[in-house]
Amino acid sequence: MDKDKILEASKKHPIVDGHTFKYGTAGFRMKADLLEGVTFRVGLLSSLRSRKRNSQAIGVMITASHNPAVDNGVKIVDPMGEMLEQDWEALATGLVNAPTHEALVELYFKYVKDLKIDLRAQARVIYGRDTRPSGHKLVTALADALEATGTEYVDYKLLTTPILHYLVRATNTEGMPFAYGEVSEAGYYKKLADAFVRAMKGKKVNGSLTVDCANGVGGPKLHEFLNYLPKEQLGLDIKIVNDDVLRPEVLNLDCGADFVKTRQRAPPAPKPQHGTKSCSFDGDADRLIYYWNEPDHRQFFMLDGDRIASLAASFIGDLVEKAGLKQDMRIGVVQTAYANGMSTTYITQVLKLQVICTPTGVKHLHHVAQGFDIGVYFEANGHGTVLFSPDAINAFKNTEPQSPAQKEALDTLAALADLINQTVGDALSDMLMVEVILAHKNWTLGDWHETYKDRPNRLVRVEVADKDLFETTDAERRLSRPLGAQEDIDNEVKKYKDARAFARASGTENACRVYAEAATHSETNELAERVVRIIE
Ligand code: NG1
Ligand code: ZN
């Protein structure tokens, strides 16, 4: 490999002038026509990352998740299936913003030198993309970067984001205590199907389930997955809707998890059937929201990430107790400041589990969840998972049961550890987990919803001249800058009962967000508006 090869390849995929790019919470994400050069350069970095990490496979996912079809994005997945390490985000930003092809090549070799990367080591990259039409062009740019750097690569074509994360983890087995699963898309389906059957323990799924796939890649993948399940044995009656991936313009349009969560209503099409248990994936199938419309009251009920977290924590907490492992296991729930205050109260006071709050962005939650034996983490928007430590998995598999009940609890825990994606939030895997729990508890969505009552809340997006003026502390719950703003917010919050409010700069949009909770809807709105006025 030489400089000229990279230089020539780079000239085929120039960066669009006049833009500053930043590797954000979800990698690089923007209008797809700005992304070709960006993706090429991400390819260069992923190759370096693999060489730096002893030739382990690095993943690259091309998706813009719940964003409209004209957008796209590219992000890097580290060897254990986790998000790219933070220090390397800055390196990615550096490469992508190199002003010329020559400057790019120079910076690439500067990284090689500074990070002591051995260019003779084999580099390995695997990648996939969602259903966006722009994905084709972007993978060409990516492959050209991998060719130019002598990187071995596998193009997995259409994938959900969590399947790509699974494949990265499964590929890098060397030195791992357990194999993660077969290195193929089919291997992912088989692992989940097998674990689902084991976790159900002969129970049947409670009622039919309508799954809205946001017209994204989750649709075809869910269809495929269902072929691996003994549907009758499980009493499984799944109806897949919004699974049109042939008309790109309908992706995430008036459907999907983000629509349901932000609009607080079911997708208008197909016409919601009253009382039917429903859930929505987002465009790359890493978020999940459950809901139903009440037949009599015409009311809409939603079970978001906070509810999924508390459901999982309650079920797994009980199983750990039945398995006789309560003394040995640290179980914790990780949330962000956007979690409804009543979910936090329920988890700490009723379930008696520890809750930690982190800044927004799943990489932060994931990291903190790894500190527990069992770490449950979800953002309110439905992105999350449950992590099990190697010690926990060992205990599920190797504890000698003293009773049939204890054996059943241990087996169910071991099955859940296989069922739940250990790398990232996964709508398909999370949906199966929810169904297992509802079946074991013999609960409807109504029973689940009754566990606690949400506090009224309001989230407002505020246009500001310069969002970078807003700096936070305390897991983004307090503003340290501009000076004095937090004091003003505190003064407003004090005036309301059971109230909480905070403001922070968005990590994904050029705006600030204000969040408020209070005892009633009108007080919540009033408080939110007062805080908006402070930061405007
Ligand atoms: P920002 O724009 O930083 O608030 C949003 C979501 C996050 C997270 C990221 C990445 C809210 C309030 N924020 O972050 O939860 O999912 O996008 O997608 O929903
Ligand atoms: Zn997503």
UniProtKB/TrEMBL annotation:
<keyword id="KW-0119">Carbohydrate metabolism</keyword>
<feature type="binding site">
    <location>
        <begin position="504"/>
        <end position="508"/>
    </location>
    <ligand>
        <name>substrate</name>
    </ligand>
</feature>
<feature type="domain" description="Alpha-D-phosphohexomutase alpha/beta/alpha">
    <location>
        <begin position="56"/>
        <end position="89"/>
    </location>
</feature>
<feature type="binding site">
    <location>
        <begin position="379"/>
        <end position="381"/>
    </location>
    <ligand>
        <name>substrate</name>
    </ligand>
</feature>
<dbReference type="InterPro" id="IPR016066">
    <property type="entry name" value="A-D-PHexomutase_CS"/>
</dbReference>
<dbReference type="InterPro" id="IPR049023">
    <property type="entry name" value="AMG1_II"/>
</dbReference>
<dbReference type="Pfam" id="PF21405">
    <property type="entry name" value="AMG1_II"/>
</dbReference>
<feature type="domain" description="Phosphoacetylglucosamine mutase AMG1">
    <location>
        <begin position="304"/>
        <end position="443"/>
    </location>
</feature>
<protein>
    <recommendedName>
        <fullName>Phosphoacetylglucosamine mutase</fullName>
        <ecNumber>5.4.2.3</ecNumber>
    </recommendedName>
</protein>
<feature type="binding site">
    <location>
        <position position="282"/>
    </location>
    <ligand>
        <name>Mg(2+)</name>
    </ligand>
</feature>
<keyword id="KW-0460">Magnesium</keyword>
<keyword id="KW-0597">Phosphoprotein</keyword>
<feature type="binding site">
    <location>
        <position position="286"/>
    </location>
    <ligand>
        <name>Mg(2+)</name>
    </ligand>
</feature>
<dbReference type="InterPro" id="IPR005843">
    <property type="entry name" value="A-D-PHexomutase_C"/>
</dbReference>
<dbReference type="InterPro" id="IPR036900">
    <property type="entry name" value="A-D-PHexomutase_C_sf"/>
</dbReference>
<feature type="binding site">
    <location>
        <position position="284"/>
    </location>
    <ligand>
        <name>Mg(2+)</name>
    </ligand>
</feature>
<dbReference type="GO" id="GO:0006048">
    <property type="term" value="P:UDP-N-acetylglucosamine biosynthetic process"/>
</dbReference>
<keyword id="KW-0413">Isomerase</keyword>
<dbReference type="GO" id="GO:0071555">
    <property type="term" value="P:cell wall organization"/>
</dbReference>
<dbReference type="InterPro" id="IPR049022">
    <property type="entry name" value="AMG1_III"/>
</dbReference>
<keyword id="KW-0479">Metal-binding</keyword>
<dbReference type="Pfam" id="PF02878">
    <property type="entry name" value="PGM_PMM_I"/>
</dbReference>
<comment type="pathway">
    <text>Nucleotide-sugar biosynthesis; UDP-N-acetyl-alpha-D-glucosamine biosynthesis; N-acetyl-alpha-D-glucosamine 1-phosphate from alpha-D-glucosamine 6-phosphate (route I): step 2/2.</text>
</comment>
<dbReference type="GO" id="GO:0000287">
    <property type="term" value="F:magnesium ion binding"/>
</dbReference>
<keyword id="KW-0961">Cell wall biogenesis/degradation</keyword>
<feature type="binding site">
    <location>
        <position position="513"/>
    </location>
    <ligand>
        <name>substrate</name>
    </ligand>
</feature>
<dbReference type="InterPro" id="IPR005844">
    <property type="entry name" value="A-D-PHexomutase_a/b/a-I"/>
</dbReference>
<comment type="function">
    <text>Catalyzes the conversion of GlcNAc-6-P into GlcNAc-1-P during the synthesis of uridine diphosphate/UDP-GlcNAc, which is a biosynthetic precursor of chitin and also supplies the amino sugars for N-linked oligosaccharides of glycoproteins.</text>
</comment>
<dbReference type="InterPro" id="IPR016657">
    <property type="entry name" value="PAGM"/>
</dbReference>
<dbReference type="Pfam" id="PF21404">
    <property type="entry name" value="AMG1_III"/>
</dbReference>
<feature type="domain" description="Phosphoacetylglucosamine mutase AMG1">
    <location>
        <begin position="207"/>
        <end position="288"/>
    </location>
</feature>
<feature type="active site" description="Phosphoserine intermediate">
    <location>
        <position position="65"/>
    </location>
</feature>
<comment type="similarity">
    <text>Belongs to the phosphohexose mutase family.</text>
</comment>
<dbReference type="Pfam" id="PF00408">
    <property type="entry name" value="PGM_PMM_IV"/>
</dbReference>
<dbReference type="GO" id="GO:0004610">
    <property type="term" value="F:phosphoacetylglucosamine mutase activity"/>
</dbReference>
<dbReference type="GO" id="GO:0005975">
    <property type="term" value="P:carbohydrate metabolic process"/>
</dbReference>
<feature type="binding site" description="via phosphate group">
    <location>
        <position position="65"/>
    </location>
    <ligand>
        <name>Mg(2+)</name>
    </ligand>
</feature>
<feature type="domain" description="Alpha-D-phosphohexomutase C-terminal">
    <location>
        <begin position="459"/>
        <end position="533"/>
    </location>
</feature>
<dbReference type="InterPro" id="IPR016055">
    <property type="entry name" value="A-D-PHexomutase_a/b/a-I/II/III"/>
</dbReference>
<feature type="domain" description="Alpha-D-phosphohexomutase alpha/beta/alpha">
    <location>
        <begin position="96"/>
        <end position="175"/>
    </location>
</feature>
